[in-house]
Amino acid sequence: MSTVTLAAPAQTARRAVLTAEFRLFRREPGSLVGILLFPVALLVILGSIPAFREADDSLGGIRLVDAYVPVTVLLGMIAGGLQSMPPIITGYRERGILRRMSTTPVRPSALIGAQMGIHGAAVLVSAALCLAVGRLAFDVALPRQLFGYLLALVLAVAVALALGAVVCARAGTTKISTAIGTVVFFPSMFTAGVWLPVQSMPDALAHIVELTPFGAAAQALDQAAAGHWPGTVHLLVVAAWAVALSAAAARWFRWE
Question: For this protein, what is any one GO molecular function term (predicted)?
Fold first, then answer.
């Protein structure tokens, strides 16, 4: 009876934390722009270039705009994991909010879970927007292997949030987390194919990039979009990175 009595307030408090964090997230225009609008804006800009709407033999006959839809999907995840979530959590640590929460029925882990859930939902909305804009504005086909695409998408979200959690774990202040996130952001964009799709990279470079979390995710999403089941190696690479980064974040994380 006492267990039930204690569990109910804790569950209520967790819901209150999630509601409060969601309201705060909606009031942060920078986070919403980076996750929801920046990838879509990039897709619109690239798709407006006539050469990007012509078939490219080096890409297997698809257009560059077709290849960039999975890239912009990943871009929203990278922005959420590296630039939006870390400053929020490190800010809570810096101001002592996590320490104070440890004395309440809600453990600090509830706050972390709420942030990861909110950002995970936001990047999924961003992915849906990119797919919708690609289809409606530039006649990009929707993923032909839906289940494979969803699997690759979920794994990519997991690895992006896990990478962000590592930044949260290692950074002591908001300024440091922003600096680390920015430094990691640009290489992540490169491996995801923002400047050059993985399919267009020289073979040696492509093989190296495919061993990175976002390079492998880009290939898995591209394969599923073309109607093929994502390569097992690519899925395993993304999953392995997600597990390794999550373990590292759990080991290094400090509440104070």
Answer: ABC-type transporter activity
Give the separation between CA 213 and CA 236, rounded to whole angstroms. 10
Secondary-structure percent of the chain, ordered helix, strand, coil, rounded to 5: 80, 0, 20
The widest CA-to-CA distance across the chain, in whole angstroms, is: 69
Provide φ and ψ at 172, rounded to 5°.
-85, -25
Name the amino acid, one letter, at 22. F
The residue ranges of every structural domain in the chain are: 7-252
Q: Is the pLDDT of residue 196 over 50?
A: yes
pLDDT digits (tens, 9 = 90+) for 13-54: 677 778 888 887 877 777 778 898 999 999 999 999 998 898
Nearest C-alpha neighbor of 112 from the set 21, 193, 47, 189: 21
* CB contact burial 107-119 (16+ within 10 A = b; e otherwise): bbebbbebbbebb
CA-to-CA distance for 235 and 152, rounded, in angstroms?
Answer: 7
Length of the chain: 256
Cβ(245)–Cβ(162) under 8 Å? yes
HSE of 135 in the Cβ direction (CA atoms, 13 Å)?
A: 11
Q: What radius of gyration do the chain's Cα atoms show?
A: 19
DSSP 52: G
Tell me how many degrees the CA angle 235-240-242 measures, rounded to the nearest 5. Answer: 95
